[in-house]
Amino acid sequence: MNLDMRPDAVLSVGITRHRNLDADRQSFAAAQAAIEDIFRRLSTALSTAVSEDAAYFSAEVPILRVITMAAQGADLAAAQAAVVCGAELSCVLPFQVDEYLKDFLPTLRPWRKRL
């Protein structure tokens, strides 16, 4: 039996920002697109680093993990970007989901299915 004790390669990124981004849908979309670009670049850099130093990591696929409160605004833009980019998404919520969602604009509530 071969027991591989090397760690999985995981890059965790925490996101938090102000809520006022939703005032302008164009700004929200632009922010999400920019964050997606950053996440893609981070994923590529992580994969490159792991392939260059494969002896130090397990054979598992490298993971980009995004941690956010997914609050309305930039946090939510980052959460959506994480999903689009295939990153692992971890949401830290200060309340139960139903209570937390009461704070969202009605147009953003459909996103609750992903929390």
Explain how this protein is built.
By secondary structure, this protein is an alpha/beta fold. The chain has one domain (17-107). It has helices at 25-52, 74-84, 97-101; strands spanning 10-15, 63-68, 88-91. Helix 1 (25-52) crosses helix 2 (74-84). The model has no long low-confidence stretch (mean pLDDT 86).
Briefly, what is this?
With 115 residues, the protein is α/β, with parallel strands linked by helices. Helix content is 38%, strand content 14%.
Largest sheet: 3 strands, parallel
Question: In whole angstroms, how far apart are the ends?
Answer: 39 Å
Count the beta strands: 3
Radius of gyration computed on alpha carbons: 17 Å
- Average residue pLDDT: 86
Biggest sheet strand line-up: 1-2-3
Number of domains: 1
Spell the H/E element sequence.
EHEHEH
Low-confidence stretches: none
> How many helices in DSSP terms?
3
Strand content: 5-15%
Category by helix and strand content: alpha/beta
Helix content: 25-40%
Label the overall shape. elongated
Q: Which key terms come to mind for this protein?
A:
elongated; alpha/beta; 3-stranded parallel sheet; 115 residues
